[in-house]
Amino acid sequence: MAVTQHSASRPHFTPWRDVPTGIYATAAQLKTMDLPRQPGPPAATVDGQDGIGRRTTITLYRIDQSLPTAATAAQLAAARARSENSVRARVCADCGARPDRAPIATESYGALCPTCWHIRGLRQRQEEAARERATAVRTVRSLLRLSNPPLGVPHVDYTERGHTPAGTRRSPAAAKVTVIDANGVVLAEPLLRLVSARAKGIPPGAGDPVSGADVLAAILSQLTVLIWRYRDLDDLSAGLRSQGATWFLPTDGHVHEMSRLATAWRGEVTLDGERPVAVAPGCADQMLYLLNQIADTEQALAMPIGALS
Q1: What is the largest CA-CA distance in the chain?
Q2: Which residues of 89-113 are buried (b: 16+ CB within 10 A; e: fewer)?
Q3: Span 182-239, pLDDT tens digits
Q4: Hey, how many other C-beta atoms are within 10 angstroms of the C-beta on 71?
Q5: Same domain as 178, residue 288
Q6: Whose C-alpha in 11, 161, 266, 306 is 20 to 30 A from the C-alpha of 273?
Q7: How many domains does the chain have?
Q8: Omega into 149 within 30° of 0, i.e. cis?
Q9: SS3 142
Q10: Same domain, residue pair 185 and 274
Q11: What does the alpha-carbon distance between residue 302 and residue 12 come to, in Å, rounded to a whole number?
């Protein structure tokens, strides 16, 4: 939660969503309550926009410190009677709640309490996720079954060298690059040195980076390549280039990131409406296993949102 203390007693919220529900309200919100209220002392602030869209800081008041207005019950009833839709507008169209604060008016769903408004938003995000999942499944099926050239799945494991006394991470000493095909057959598994041959921490068997990179380039140039993320290869690329080796990853459009596909297929939506990034499998054969899971997805594509609720 993005909250700072502008003073000992007045917190400041950066986004509106971090303002605790039922605790604070603006002066305008207090006026629109079922029984209108007057603000008490300023209690907090939040970043927002003014009436013409300019960024500003909005003052918030504690609802439990607000006071009733001077309006009589007869005046409140008369004001309510002047608006034939006022009663309906105070009742949540989904759950029937009658909150103190005015529900959120929508054209499609009627008046909604904050919780039902949030649920509607989450459902929309879930529907978006379902569409993206279907697209991811089609893409993965194409990669596994229709790729021309055929699919290759590389994965890199680094030999780390710890940190400097100042806390800076040292560049990896070596990298084991495993490449498998769509059937799980290992096509290459070289262990490449990424630092000077005189450097400490190089594992036994680490081979010449130049010749190893050439072997990988020859293999991957004949494949459609599926990596987890480009940035996972940054240390490998930098290490090979530092040793005079040529970067081996094709640059002709036959390289795809699996992380995006896996995230879309998982399709999880958090309570905040965010889309968590899929956890990396961590090795080539598990990447292929996950790919086959995605490709075999059938019934989940046809299941409507909320079918289990």
Answers
A1: 91
A2: ebbbbbeebebebbbbeeeeebbbb
A3: 999 999 999 999 999 999 899 999 999 999 999 999 999 999 999 999 999 999 999 9
A4: 13
A5: yes
A6: 11
A7: 2
A8: yes
A9: helix
A10: yes
A11: 45
